[in-house]
Amino acid sequence: MKLSHKALRQKYADHLIAHKHVEAPPISLVPQDDPTTLFTGSGMQQFVPYLLGKAHPLGTRLFNIQPCIRVQDIEEVGDNRHDTFFEMMGNWSLGDYFKKEQLSWFFAFLTDTKIGLGLEPERLYVTVFQGDEHIPKDAESIAIWQELFSQAGVEPTLGERIVTYDATKNWWSRAGVPDQMPAGEPGGPDSEVFYRFDLDHDPAFGTKCHPNCDCGRFLEIGNSVFMQYKKNEQGAFDELPKKNVDFGGGLERLLSAGNNEPDMFKTDVFTPVVSVVENAVKQEYHSSDQKPAMRIIADHIKTATFIIKTGVTPSNKEQGYVLRRLLRRAMVKIRTLNTSFSTKEIEPIVKEVVHTYDGIYFEAQKDSTHIIDVVGNEVERFKKTLEKGMREIEKRDVIDGKGAFDLYQSYGFPFEITQEIVAERGQDISEEEFEQAKTHHQEVSRTSAKNKFRGGLADHAEQTIKYHTATHLIHQALFDVVGEVRQEGSNITAQRLRFDFYTERKPTDDDIKTVEKTVNHKITEALPVRMQVMDKQEAMAAGARAFFKEKYPEKVNVYYIGDEDVKKAYSKELCGGPHVKNTKEIGSIKIVKLKKIGSNMYRLYAE
User: Fold this and answer.
1) In this model, does residue 189 exceed pLDDT 80?
2) pLDDT band for position 550 (cuts 50, 70, 90)
3) Residue 23 is part of which domain span?
4) Mean pLDDT over residues 537-545, rounded?
5) Is 165 helix (H, G, I), strand (E, B) or coil?
6) Do residues 491 and 567 lie in contact, with contact meaning Cβ atoms separated by under 8 Å?
7) Which of 37, 54, 151, 272 is deepest in the core (most CB within 10 A)?
8) 426-447 pLDDT per residue, tens
9) Nearest to 311 by CA among 378, 367, 363
10) What is the number of alpha carbons within 13 Å of residue 86 lying toward its C-beta?
11) If you ran DSSP here, which 8-state letter would residue 545 be given?
């Protein structure tokens, strides 16, 4: 019987709860108050302050499944293991257990037939940090793995079953490898687990296969990071007094391993979507030589569906630009295989994504219509862009490799289509020139995007945390002064906060002055800020406010300001944090601008 994604979720939760972990609700796919990142890109993103020493209100043993998007390697999608939307299964120890427990528990989850996935131990391979001139080899992890494999009847041969790599592969810190870490920065070795499929090694990827080989035989399914050291002023490394564990394993990859299926697109987070893609492109996936294109279509529309669910629409800026790029790239691939494609071919793909995750991230009846409308509008806009691209080709007497890349970048024309068009003129395009232009563009893009996509690790600055808490006070003050309002989103930098809201009554200048006065009064009252984990229905019944576009889990974090009784508190919201401990830490707030941004929609700026 095949392992389903729903069964995998339940097994993981049961496993961690049995080891006294508490579920910490995942944060939004589009962080509301973090200017350093476009999307949540890792499970540990919300836990950075706690990994650096802050006490977490839920305790020292935590877990969750975090939806993530990583688009910096979008060009990798098309093989059997890369996707732009994925879910990260994670667990954390904050100064509690360490290497022995983490590696033993994860190995049990992978191999135990009753509580875990029942994987064959002989299919598992691990990597550890080999050490350098500053930090010793991770001998402790090696010894633990040797014992675990021996107990499972597998010879733990060093260099084969257990492989050591340098810091570029088996070390984690926010700054990268040890040499790049500033004084005071924590970091540590990590240990990755790989699953081996029954595939032959492709010599194109080297003479010898190994766990980190890209030939497809091995798939990384989990990484345990051990926050063990801190760099001192002399450039050496001291052991941390409180050591942490940060584990992450991709749900989709664990699902592939659990089914012994090297093609992620043949697991049930993709098979229903791929089946609708087959109808759209008039080809069967299992026998098609266009599998890469079909994977791109399935992945990109799936990711776009999740992005639209958060309230993002296609645009030329930030998240909206990513959404537009994903949709248009998918449409170009569909057009390559089906020149008469239309919204009718794409609608069922969106519906199938929503259906696959119904009850987890979507409510099928409520979400499908809006998402399909957004996608349909972009399809129509892009068709016009395609026509413009065709006219641009007609204007040019000669198109070289760089010109072909310009058409690819500006209009979404794949090289193959441009090549076919100019071939009719008796011309030939250098594919090498096209690839050179493409590679140059990727290098520039990755350099410029490095900070934007680093996973929000840079900005848990004191001022942004103050502004984050202030948005809660502003939200409640608007209710007090204006009446019924609905939060539409927020954006926070270290310089200012922005708060978007819907209300049927336009706020007057006097209203805004009163809101500002109310917020500053609550700040001077020095009200405590608390957090309580509650059932979602209980939280809503207590009057907690929520970001209406967000899909919340059954267990939620409620941050409340004022009275110790959450029901009597001045402000209470479903939120991922972090926040100040007392409103007096905020200082004061001045509302500097209010503008209308849509029908009954307003945007407020404060400093």
Assistant:
1) yes
2) low
3) 5-262
4) 89
5) strand
6) no
7) 37
8) 888 888 888 888 887 776 655 5
9) 367
10) 26
11) B
What six digits make up the tokens of 234? 């002399």
Verify that 403 and 502 share a domain, yes or no.
no
- Judge contact between 492 and 471, C-beta under 8 A: yes
Structure tokens at 197: 């499929």
Give the 3-state secondary structure of residue 45: helix
- Contacts with 531 (C-beta within 8 Å, 6 or more apart), sequence order: 57, 557, 558, 559, 560, 577, 579
Q: Are residues 75 and 15 in the same domain?
A: yes
Domain co-membership, 245 together with 110: yes
Q: Are residues 419 and 491 in the same domain?
A: no
Amino acid making up residue 475? H
Query: Residue 246 has which token pair?
Result: 């940060």
Of all residues in the chain, what percent carry a pLDDT higher than 90?
55
Domain stop point among 262, 291, 326? 262
Which residues make Cβ contacts (< 8 Å) with residue 77, sequence separation at least 6? 83, 84, 295, 296, 299, 300
Please give the model's pTM, rounded to 2 decimal places. 0.75
SS3 content of the chain, % helix, strand, coil (to 5): 45, 20, 35
CA distance 162 to 125: 6
Residue type (1 letter), 400: D
Q: Do residue 115 and residue 204 come from a single domain?
A: yes
Q: How far is CA 427 from the centre of its chain?
A: 43
Amino acid at 324: R
